[in-house]
Design brief:
homodimer, Farnesyl Diphosphate Synthase, two-stranded antiparallel ribbon, 16 helices
Chain lengths: 326, 326
């Protein structure tokens, strides 16, 4: 029997082909360096989860037009713009097994191509002539940059609490995924309750997606993940597992963790020590439980829709978020 | 008798006060670091020429509503976002006599606050609900980032010709100033010929504005300008005066200029030698002549409007572009 991932991929293969075409098409008329940097970040193994969610959401609401793939690229462009700027801001070195864009193309081109992708995504949204869609994308873009700024402000701050963390991941990740589903429903001119249901689905899926992403930085196989585990901690990013554990640890254990985290050059042994303390205080299990809850909520939101292949796919995608290894 | 600058300032004093208020108001609800960086770049001596042009264009077309100042901030935000990212991309050190933002706040905050201002400006435009206005701003933003990328690509390239240069300044400067005038006319729901006339005025004013800006980098008093002359050349930016001179110089003079320009650490004496060769071949006079032509065209575009205080002000502003010292 096929695994969940293979089943999902089989069902969306044609959609993914068309999304790839739309992504490539939209870039070709621009300056070569734009295409090169944009392709480097966009065709380096992204999962196209955001455009796919938009397309599937539109389909679930009965959309039969031909504009969905064209519009869906907006979500990948915005996401890619964020990756380009964030890797630079974070001083990251590796993404999906490749050197980060700014180390290959330099900071100037990386800043400017990020700006271009951001601007281009808004321009594509404007072409819809649909104010509600434009509004969502404009405010999501502003929220995302506030989320990134929030993350920067909390960098290395051991007092970061769960609500600070949730605030950052909502803005930097969840709202864009929510927007993808929301815009899909709007494109299909769905009735309001369905639009709301898909926005809710996307929001919860997005929160879970980031929770799992942050978990993988502790628990993944570095080979599969395409970068070393412990990268977040090394960059001073405190995510839920460690926030939860720090909050519950004895003074002694907390001091021990803080000492290791406080020096970004910590060794593999140092990371393992932090990880084992995180596990001791249930930080991994807690973050996983929170992700589960959001996935359950996401799936419940779909209850308003009759059973269909598209609904089944969105449910499968939600389950997959919890299972993914990279 | 008062000078042109004082006359203009007297006429727009109340507008400028209201624009300043709108600029400050729109930032206050955001994260402190956003306000700080944004205020640093925005309240460091900018001339508010873009918001002012939008407000005056709307008024010339009979606009009497109260939304002009609110919307006008979009043009200052977009401009400021570009300054933040460009100074970083250019490795600049000083702007208007102050250290550049990224040397005070660091690259990460500078990248992210630039993104925020860009996103916020699109969000404010989206709030108008006016598709034509949103469209203009979205495509201008994309053009601006292409202009900056074009400039980066031509950096230090001695084969840059006048048409490459014009292409860059159109995108990085003229289209935004054009948009300000265009959007002002649209806000006033002006008839199409007037909208077109103001867009033309803005375009030509914008081209002249950048031509003069680039001239000042050769001819200004560094104290008045707020940065040393020769900065463009040091950053590898070939602007019209030097492009024109290189193109007309004897082999010997061209080689001499290229030798100096080729080493960004050139001395004051080196710069003076380049400047005197530029003058020998008429590069300063030519760029000034081109700026004059665009200002003449800008003023001619206003011919469609009856004489009025607003029309007179826009004409004065055009004349002032040619006279400014900083």
């Amino acid at each position: 029997m096929k695994g969940l991932k293979e089943r999902i991929l089989d069902s969306v293969r044609q959609d993914l082909v068309e999304i790839e075409e739309a992504l490539a098409e939209n870039l070709s008329p621009y300056l070569p360096v734009v295409s090169q940097v944009a392709k480097y970040i966009m065709f380096g193994g992204g999962k196209r989860i955001r455009p796919l969610l938009m397309v599937l959401s539109a389909r679930l609401c009965g959309y039969q037009g031909g504009y969905d793939k064209t519009l869906s690229v907006v979500f990948e462009y915005l996401h890619s713009a964020t990756l380009l700027h964030d890797d630079l801001v974070d001083g990251a070195e590796v993404r999906r097994g490749n050197p980060v864009a700014h180390s290959v193309w330099g900071n100037p081109a990386t800043v400017l191509v990020g700006d271009f992708l951001l601007a281009r995504s808004i321009a594509i949204a404007a072409e819809t002539g649909n104010i509600a869609i434009i509004d969502i994308l404009a405010s999501t873009t502003a929220q995302m940059s506030e989320g990134e700024i929030g993350q920067l402000l909390h960098k290395g701050d051991l007092a970061t609490d769960e609500s600070d963390y949730m605030d950052v991941i909502r803005r930097k990740t969840a709202y864009l995924i929510q927007s993808a589903c929301h815009v899909g429903a709007l494109l299909a001119e769905a009735e309001e309750a369905r639009v709301r249901a898909l926005a809710q689905y996307g929001y919860n899926l997005g929160v879970a997606f980031q929770l799992v992403d942050d978990l993988l930085d502790y628990t993944a196989d570095g080979q599969v993940l395409g970068k070393a585990t412990g990268t977040d901690l090394r960059e001073g990013k405190l995510t839920l597992p460690v926030i939860y554990a720090l909050n519950r640890a004895t003074n002694e254990d907390r001091n021990h963790m803080e000492e290791i985290i406080g020096d970004p050059a910590f060794t593999k042994a140092g990371f393992d020590a932090v990880l084992s303390l995180i596990k001791k205080y249930g930080g991994i299990a807690y973050a996983r439980k929170r992700a589960h809850e959001h996935i359950d909520q996401a799936k419940r939101s779909l209850g308003i829709f009759d059973g269909s292949k598209s609904r089944g796919l969105l449910e499968d995608l939600a389950d997959y978020v919890l299972m993914r290894k990279m």
